[in-house]
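Sanity check

After download, print the first record. It should look like this:
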Amino acid sequence: MVKRPQGREVSFAFDPTAIASADALPEDTARLFWMFLSLIRKRSVDFTSFYKEFKKSSKTFSRDVTKLRDIGTRYHFALTRQRRGVVALANLLDIPDPRRKAEGIAADTLRAVADALGELVANDLLGYVDLSAAPRDPVLRIAMPQLVGQSVVADTYERLRAAWKSRTRVRFRYPARDAKSNAPQTEERTVEPHVVTYYDGRYYLVAYDRRPRTSGWRQFALDRIEGGISLAGTFQLRSVPRHYRGEDAVGLFKTGPRHEVLIAISPAIAQSVLGRRWQHQQRTEYTIGSWPTIAFEVFDLGEAVRWAFGFGSFARVVAPPPAVAYARELAMLMLDAHAVAESTNTA
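Expected C-alpha cells:
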C-alpha cells in the first residue's frame, strides 16, 4: 500500500518541487501521463475533462488515445472503444482492481531498487511505500554498487538529509584549486541542500551555493566533503533546474559551456545502446558508414568520452575536435598506465 506523505515532501533523494508539476515535461508526454493517471484512478478518461485541462481538440484527444493503445500493447493493458468522447480501461494484467495492481508493480520495482542501492535508500522508501508487503520479484534484479552503512559517505548523507528536512543551510569544507598556483586546497562553502543524485556508484549533493558574487546551483560529491557538516540558518526550497535534477544518465556534471558530442557505435552493440534513453536530448543518426551515431549535450566533454570508453573498441568519439583530442589523450594515458603495471609485474 502506498502511503501518502504530508505536503510535497517526497524524499530527499528527489526534487520535491518537481514531483507534483508536469510543467517540465514535454506537452504530449504530460497529456499522456495525465490520461493514464485518469485511467488508473477512474478507469476512464473523457474528452470534456481533457479539453478543460489542455484546451486541445478532439482530434488531439483521439491521437493521444491511439498512443495509449500502442503503449498498452507493450505493457499489457487494453482500452475500450471511444464512445461519446469517453475511453475506459478494459483490463490491466487481468487484475480487476487497476489501482491495487499499479501499487503492487510500484512496490515490486521500488523493492528491487532498494535492494540494489542499499539500506539508506531502502530506509527512505519505507517511509512512503510498504516494501515488506510486496513479494520479491523472482525475475527483476538491479545490480549496482551499494552505499555501505556506517561509512563516512553514509553519515554525510544522513546529516544532509536531516538538514534538508529541517530546511537548514549547511556549512562544510570542499576541495578547490588556487587560481594562481593551481594547487589543491579546501574552501568553506555554505549551501542550501536540495537533492542527492546517485550516479555511476557515487552520491552527489545538488545545492544552492550562497557565495555572494557567485551564488548558484552546484554539485558536491559526498565523499569529498571534508571536516564535518555544521548548520548555518534556514532556507526556503527552490525549484531545482532541470539540468540538476539527475534525470539523465549522461550530462550530470556542469563544468563549462554546453557541447554536443557525437559518438559512433559499432553495429554489434547498436541495438542495445540506441535502444536506451541515456539523455532526454540525445539524437541518433546513421550517416557515418555502417556505424550509427548518438549525440549527447554535455557540459563536461570528459563525461561523454568516459561514457564511450565504457564500450571499449565498440564506440568512437567523432566530434567535436576537442572531445576527439581528449579521447586520444585519455587513451594514451591508459596505455601508459597499463604498460607501467605490466613492467612492474614482470620485474
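If your output differs, re-run the checksum step. Summary of this record's structure: Confidence is low (pLDDT under 50) at residues 1-24.
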